[in-house]
Design goal:
Number of helices: 13
Strand content: 15-25%
Number of domains: 2
CATH class of the largest domain: Alpha Beta
Radius of gyration: 27 Å
CATH superfamily of the largest domain: P-loop containing nucleotide triphosphate hydrolases
Shape: elongated
């Protein structure tokens, strides 16, 4: 006789490995600045980690009770005797099905030489030769890792702030998307602007269903009004500009650490045009993966009066 045991009692819950970013590249090119960028955005960061410890680090982050979900490590040739193991460790992570991304920073030879002169620091591979020889040796030693990089950033003409922005845009927007909630609302200008809106769009330039007798007492949630608004050439032109604008703007709010964004679309009474376009905007943003709520502040005011 065998007992029926629920699957949830016999199967362990799926363990989601943390997001892993390996930062590497040339000394003086901005590895430390890159690490500080990830640190500021909530990553657990380790500098100069011996590559042989990468797999062990991943194992520790998936232990019961661990709350580490994002990890960024700097692996470079300062630990020369260990660095040759990096490619082997990356191969083992791939074989184990653990995803990772590599950020590689570099700069022109003259720029790196000037940076070392300015800081008066010794190049880590410059034990007896010149700084130039150390840079060239490091570049040769990193060649295979560079080929596997997901993002290569040349910082020759970059300010630190520009490097931080480049990293945020490439690595962080998608992973932080789930942390931004968006509320989309419709309103009527004659009832006042919403005081909590971050972005306000006036859609009163579109033809008004209010002046169509059979649509006057319907709302933008009803099919006839939707068709009237969305099938207009003016609306098509507006949406072709409005939606891509939001696509570009929302990641900027994300990387600046904003957790909630309020978008309000207004027409005269808040019953027709703004309702249709608020619904269309919310639908579009949900398709991009954002958590979106919708509210129609004034949808019944004119209807109740009518």
């Amino acid at each position: 006789m065998t007992d029926d045991i629920p699957a949830c009692d016999t199967a362990e819950a799926a363990v989601v490995p943390p997001e892993l970013v390996v930062i590497t590249g040339l000394s003086g090119a901005g590895r430390s600045e890159a690490m500080h960028t990830f640190e500021d955005l909530g990553y657990f960061c380790i500098d100069n980690l011996p590559p042989a410890l990468l797999s062990r680090l991943v194992e520790l982050t998936v232990l019961p009770g661990s709350r580490i979900r994002r990890v960024a490590v700097v692996c470079d040739m300062r630990a020369k005797e260990f660095f040759t193991e990096l490619l082997t460790e990356l191969d083992e992570l791939e074989a184990a099905g653990h995803p990772y991304r590599i950020l590689y920073v570099e700069a022109a030879l003259k720029v790196l030489v000037n940076r070392f002169k300015t800081t008066r620091r010794r190049h880590p591979l410059c034990e007896s030769g010149s700084v130039v020889e150390g840079i060239r040796a490091e570049r040769d030693g990193l060649a295979q890792v560079r080929e596997r990089a997901d993002l290569i950033i040349d910082t020759s003409e970059m300010l630190p702030s520009q490097l931080r922005e480049a990293i945020r845009r490439r690595f962080l927007s998608d992973s932080l998307k789930e942390s931004l909630s968006v509320s989309v609302s419709s309103f009527g200008f004659k009832y006042g602007l919403p005081i909590d809106a971050d972005i306000v769009m006036d859609v009163r330039f579109l033809p008004n269903p209010f002046y169509v007798q059979k649509l006057r007492h319907k709302t933008g949630l009803e099919g006839a009004v939707k068709r009237f608004v969305l099938e207009r050439a003016e609306t098509t032109t507006f949406l072709d500009r409005w939606l891509p604008l939001l696509t570009g703007l929302l990641p900027d709010y994300l990387v600046e650490g904003k957790h909630h964004l309020s978008i309000a679309l207004g027409c005269t009474g808040g019953m027709h045009r703004s309702v249709v376009l608020a619904e269309r905007t919310a639908e579009y943003l949900r398709g991009l993966g954002y958590d979106v709520s919708v509210r129609h502040r004034d949808i019944r005011r004119d209807k109740d009066r009518g």
